[in-house]
Give the backbone structure.
Amino acid sequence: MTHAARPRTRLIAIDRHPNGPRLYVQGLRIHHGLTGAVLFASSLLARPSRQRRALRACALAMIAEDGHDFPWRLIDPPLLETA
């Protein structure tokens, strides 16, 4: 299997993948642990509410689930095609 750079047709794109959805920002894959860290940081700016607690819980779950990949690579290295 080869990994190709995603075309920069959209600012944000989400692709379906057998191992779960893939988030791309300007063609670069962003790991869900990093996404969770950004969501958690944004929840610190929100007013206290039930939604803020839910946002923090989702963010922490994303971080914990992707913890085995920490520190998250912002760009997946392309695999060399061996044919």
Remarks:
- Strands lie at 12-15, 22-25, 28-30.
- The mean pLDDT is 78.
- The two ends are 11 Å apart (CA to CA).
